[in-house]
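Here we describe the complex-level prediction in full. Unlike the single-chain runs in Section 2.1, the two entities below were treated as one system.
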Amino acid sequence: MWIECVPNFSEGRRLDVMQAIAEAAASAGARVLGMEGDYDHNRSVLTLAGETATVEEAVLRAAFVAVSQIDLRRHVGTHPRMGAIDVIPFIPLEGTSMADAVQAAQRVGERLGRELGLPVYLYEHAATIPQRRNLADVRRGEFEGLAARMSSDVPDYGPSSPHPSAGAVAVGARRPLIAFNVFLNTTDIQVAQAVAKAVRNSSGGLAGVKALAMDTVSQGQVQVSLNLVDYPKTSLPRAVEMVRQEAQQYGVSVARTELVGLMPVQALLDTARYYLQQPDLTLERILEWQLMEQLDDAGRVDKP
Amino acid sequence: MWIECVPNFSEGRRLDVMQAIAEAAASAGARVLGMEGDYDHNRSVLTLAGETATVEEAVLRAAFVAVSQIDLRRHVGTHPRMGAIDVIPFIPLEGTSMADAVQAAQRVGERLGRELGLPVYLYEHAATIPQRRNLADVRRGEFEGLAARMSSDVPDYGPSSPHPSAGAVAVGARRPLIAFNVFLNTTDIQVAQAVAKAVRNSSGGLAGVKALAMDTVSQGQVQVSLNLVDYPKTSLPRAVEMVRQEAQQYGVSVARTELVGLMPVQALLDTARYYLQQPDLTLERILEWQLMEQLDDAGRVDKP
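The structure predicted for the assembly as a whole is:
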């Protein structure tokens, strides 16, 4: 019964704080699969996996550190955010169901409200009202708009007013997604905005694609930040190529791309299939993949 | 002490023979990771892994079937070949060395000569003379030229004349390689020949790349058949893109590509790095990869 959890924190610059958050999670016995910060977003993504109860405890401990170390009143970054620990998605792994993930979100939400005094909004599969299914709607107005909005928008757990320094948190259950940034060879944010608008589904683009333009000044390039929420249908390479194509009409090329957190091996395979023009390539043709399965069948533990 | 072995058989059309070969190998307890046939090449590639002694026995059993079922006097195909079981490379896996692979080649070579009456040439890391390091040199003249050539070129094991129906076999030890076919949108074999010549290292192309033009008539397209023998240096996407670039001067595009046998996960990663413009992508960013390592650390056996 393993579950994945990918909490996002509003800290991508102070490495000591990010490390303390990851260590707090690890101290509960959860597996830390990754902790990556982004300077411009001023945000970090922690990837956890383990037994459901262990992961829940790990998120709580990480949240304690975040609430004590991060002050949203002084937070500046390009990524929308409303809390020190901004969003906590639970993702079912093999052996757990979406219902399990929803229950984990409910238990963690209740504890965050009671133990940390954080207002908690359940979102996506854990949402209690339809208007909270979409994370972007839950976060609208961000930290600065919380006080005004909460008077009429009572959270699922915790107080009915924002935590003074840590804001509020969205806790939810969702399918796995790919978070991916594409840097464009221009400093003109309007190009990134036009590309994001063309690519994202809500304004006419690709199904399962969310996109935001980011003014990533420290890099000398603007960024289109993508979420692929249905990558089995709209694959990573297809989204990247649509960004490339849309940017081209402004004479702008793709400088590089960047993965946020982890991605499923399916995305690696989709990318090879697409660019190598080999639509029938499968993981069964990958030596180490086969060996791991075979060695496992034989009761061995050595992995290549 | 696991080893990989990738014997090639001169049969890519009769599925029952290919299946009998794979079953013979499996009957010895070796893990069959793949068995793929190619109609035009009239050739198949069996991928085995297991304990060294088990894999050696498996190859012997597969060779018995091949020698009894395949008659080179009636074999037609585009791929160079000199034997029913044409080439037997042993490849060290983690925990085995190239010296172990050479010894496996020697033991199997000795038994193929003694038990099946096959002339055996040791090649590459197992070669006993420098002229036999390169497989293409060992196979020069193919099956039809064997009798004339063997009078002066005494094999390492077995008789000094060809097996009447099964020819001779090259047995060796080598590093892993990627065998890969690129189909071009033309029926003009001269285009494939020009591209192969430009790409292969022996005539001035990329380091670690071997290439042959193949008249793959059944597909309505010609083929450039590649071996990447040093893919950590000359990666799969780089070789594919050089083929694409060279074909373009003749107005010819890449129709599709095809993997022969298995490829290392490194090639999947190299492909994603190259086309996604993300040179620092690592396997640590792939969810299932991390989970397998983490689950393994925890002493679990479930794999995603």
